Amino acid sequence: MSTSIGQSTFENQLDSMVREFVKEKLETIMKEEMESFFTHEHPELKNQKNGFYTRQLDTRYGRLENLRVPRDRQNAFQTELFSPYQRREEWLGEAIITMYQKGVSTREIGHFIEKILGHSYSASTISQVTDVVTEDITQWQQRPLKKRYSVLYLDGTYLKLRREDVANEVVYLVVGVTEEGYREILGFYVGGQESANGWRNILLDLYSRGLEEVLLGVFDGLAGLEEAMKAVYPKADVQRCVVHKVRNALHAVRKKDQPAVAQDFKPIYQANTYEEAKNRFKEFKENWQKRYPKVVATWEKDLDVLLTFLSYPSTIRPMIYTTNIIERTMKEIKKRTKTMNSLPNEKAAEKIVYLQAIDYNERWATRRLRGFGEAYEALQEMFKQRYSGP
């Protein structure tokens, strides 16, 4: 026990010595800065020195109290070490934002900072630090987009959001694939319940920001979403997510039949041509019509939009017959917010999603999706046929 106390005392003394050493070095640097400023840059102001003022600064070595900052009567000199109103080194703000992005609550961040600095930051202070991204969010959401995207993936997920009480509200997300085959989160929108009208407004926003030509929209079976897509991009094809459709069908059959039904679906969406897929569906219908007529009927009704991907180059079909690409992105966002129980307001939700979005876009910028390089010429020809001429 005494050994532990002694070790703790030693560590505290060492920390104090390090902070004092850093403080002395910073004060020395500022004195030299000021001397150079008046001697070499503004010798006419040399007699305007006016002592110093004290302030605190949070650094990676802890909080420095009573740091002596030199000043002059006209406030002409300003140290390069930090800005006049800066109370923390940039690393601390960046660390706070990174932890917030990873889903760490503002209260937990405050406790973490206390362990580093020996002084706590309140949840409201942490929130103020993360507010620096608010202006960035607005600019990012209004940024111009490329004119052409080969594919748009649309999906929504729900986060617990507090207004007067806590309720699930949707986060709409759009991922685009460029002509060259690179992914990019084009936009996100927070609030309310997912609806086709909500999606229509989002697509109109994308169009107003310059995205005018799309080959294919990929999404699940939300009622009215296909019509919303066609209203904004009438020349685009629509692909209903096959994985969603299979999953929903399996939920509608008895457990003992699920493996056989799943196996009989595969020849449909693994076919090489549209005609082959239709023939495989006829076989599926013959096998299961009597036992599960509703499952067969809903597939027959949606078969065309489930097989759209077969009219595209074979190298990209694994990427476009399902919304798996965007679903993985959504799962990561949900993972980041899982530890927060609920988000205190819409702005907090936007900060989380935005930080995740720019992180994804930076990583994706150099990673072309598999198959799009080989399909480039064919996709260019499709753009030409749809969007060139009258």
From TrEMBL:
UniProt record similarity statement: Belongs to the transposase mutator family.
Protein name: Mutator family transposase
Source species taxonomy: Bacteria, Bacillati, Bacillota, Bacilli, Bacillales
An annotated Gene Ontology molecular function: DNA binding
Keyword DNA-binding: yes
UniProt record, GO biological process: DNA transposition
InterPro entries per the UniProt record, alphabetical: Transposase_mutator (IPR001207)
Function in brief: Required for the transposition of the insertion element.
Transmembrane segments: none
A Pfam family this chain is assigned to: Transposase_mut
Keywords on record: DNA recombination, DNA-binding, Transposable element, Transposition
